[in-house]
Amino acid sequence: DAGVTQSPTHLIKTRGQHVTLRCSPISGHKSVSWYQQVLGQGPQFIFQYYEKEERGRGNFPDRFSARQFPNYSSELNVNALLLGDSALYLCASSLGGHPSYEQYFGPGTRLTVT
Amino acid sequence: GEDVEQSLFLSVREGDSSVINCTYTDSSSTYLYWYKQEPGAGLQLLTYIFSNMDMKQDQRLTVLLNKKDKHLSLRIADTQTGDSAIYFCAETNNQGGKLIFGQGTELSVKP
Q1: Which residue of B has its CA nearest to A110?
Q2: Taking the alpha carbons of A109, A89, B21, B94 in that order, is the dihedral positive or negative?
Q3: For each successive 10 residues of chain B (111 residues), what is the average pLDDT?
């Protein structure tokens, strides 16, 4: 079975632009979470979606938004990019929203803002 | 508040045991996890422990939890060069699927 897939792999954007990152969960998984990992640090929670509804939100500005589609794939959108948004963006999927369900991470999208 | 702390580096010789330590502050933590990240890759879940347990063993991995001191450790027996990676400790308290990660411990295994 395919694992969690993310696209694109790498992305370079300019300050002020907008970006959309995509995630496809493992087949059968209904929950998707997004994390931001700045170089040298641990991942920071951004959002969790379960059954197309937002179930959790981390301490990120409103420039960050996300949604989950009927097929459980997800998009993360970031508006008005700042240099500090440069990071590895990780998507994780799980069967359900409860923490007893293992979260499987994708390889990430490396975003560079210049 | 929610905070997870780890030492940044650990170096061991191949065949030795490695012990990676983690402390956390959230007294309502329910699950605690260990993830492995290799260069350029995502996170791989190694093991997890429920907060009412104090030990879990899985092949070469042993997790010890001291809930009173909010201290978690991961012991890797017979460490191999392929174990070289960054290891993250993470915890959750059931709030909206949020995992709180430490900064990661870079494990270097020398032949």
Answers
A1: B40
A2: negative
A3: 88 97 88 92 91 92 94 97 96 80 96 91
| CA dihedral of residues B74, B77, B82, B88 (deg, nearest 10) | 0
For chain A, the average pLDDT equals 94
Contacts of B56 in chain A (CB under 8 A): none
* Exposure string over A67-89, b if 16+ CB within 10 A, otherwise e: ebeeebbbbbebeebeeebbbbb
The single-letter code of the amino acid at B12 is: V
Q: B88-102 b/e with 16+ CB inside 10 Å = b?
A: bbbbbbebbbbbbbb
Is residue A108 within 8 Å of A8, Cβ to Cβ? no
Residues of B in contact with A96 (CB under 8 A): none
Q: Nearest CA to B68 among B31, B101, B24, B4?
A: B24
Q: How far apart are CA B111 and CA B93, in angstroms?
A: 39
